[in-house]
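TA notes, week 10

Several of you asked for a full example with nothing omitted. So below is the full record: structure tokens for the whole chain, then the designed sequence directly under it. When grading your own attempts, check the secondary structure regions first.
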């Protein structure tokens, strides 16, 4: 009787751990896929007439904070949606005061996050007289960015997700109009390893649990009858 109880308890333990591994592995695959990456829309920057740039406070929008506290790579992506189709976009982050000095030469917009699938609320900030829409130097030539990226889509890695970040969205030629769809991507390669380990544990322990239950319920019961 005691032997059957011990084997049954081992079976229950294997069942719990195996089920946890199966659920964990399935959840990771469902959310992050087989490459350990999850993406989500981050709203859209809409065209504002005469605006050469869009300034976004990522800290206020919580776009720089990954969904989970895993150590991974967080990137923000911008894809051109207006103007000369295929024109390269510029993404840059830096200190707010330095960026303000740069953009003070022109007319720009400040974006306020509303919802992941909706346009940002845009507020026009007029520049000096007679300058709306005028070029004021390509952003890539300026040494004011802590990090930047150019392309269509432009993909910028956020090296310090916890720090307040000011993001500037522009065309690489510094011309107007500026409009883009934004998305945030979190990639955690370690999750792929974790997923396969969890599934391997499930594959090993779930059959073991069934085997232990069979031994406890049927095999040892038959032996006990014969011995009796």
């Amino acid at each position: 009787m005691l032997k059957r109880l011990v084997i049954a308890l081992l079976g229950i333990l294997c069942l719990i751990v195996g089920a946890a591994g199966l659920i964990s592995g399935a959840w990771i695959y469902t959310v992050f896929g087989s490459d350990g990456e999850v993406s989500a829309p981050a709203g859209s920057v809409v065209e504002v007439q005469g605006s050469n740039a869009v300034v976004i406070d990522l800290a206020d929008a919580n776009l720089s904070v990954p969904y989970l506290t895993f150590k991974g790579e967080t990137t923000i992506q911008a894809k051109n949606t207006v103007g000369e189709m295929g024109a390269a976009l510029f993404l840059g982050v830096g200190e707010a005061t330095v960026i303000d000095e740069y953009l003070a030469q022109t007319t720009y917009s400040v974006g306020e996050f509303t919802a992941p699938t909706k346009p940002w609320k845009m507020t026009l900030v007029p520049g000096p007289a007679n300058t709306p829409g005028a070029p004021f130097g390509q952003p890539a030539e300026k040494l004011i960015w802590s990090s930047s990226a150019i392309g269509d889509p432009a993909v910028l890695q956020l090296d310090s997700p916890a720090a307040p970040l000011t993001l500037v969205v522009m065309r690489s030629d510094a011309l107007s109009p500026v409009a883009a769809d934004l998305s945030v991507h979190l990639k955690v390669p370690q999750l792929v390893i974790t997923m396969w380990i969890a599934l391997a544990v499930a594959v090993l322990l779930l059959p073991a649990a069934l085997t232990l239950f069979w031994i406890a319920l049927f095999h040892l019961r038959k032996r006990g009858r014969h011995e009796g």
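The domain at 37-188 is CATH 2.60.120 (Jelly Rolls). Use that as a sanity check on your answer.
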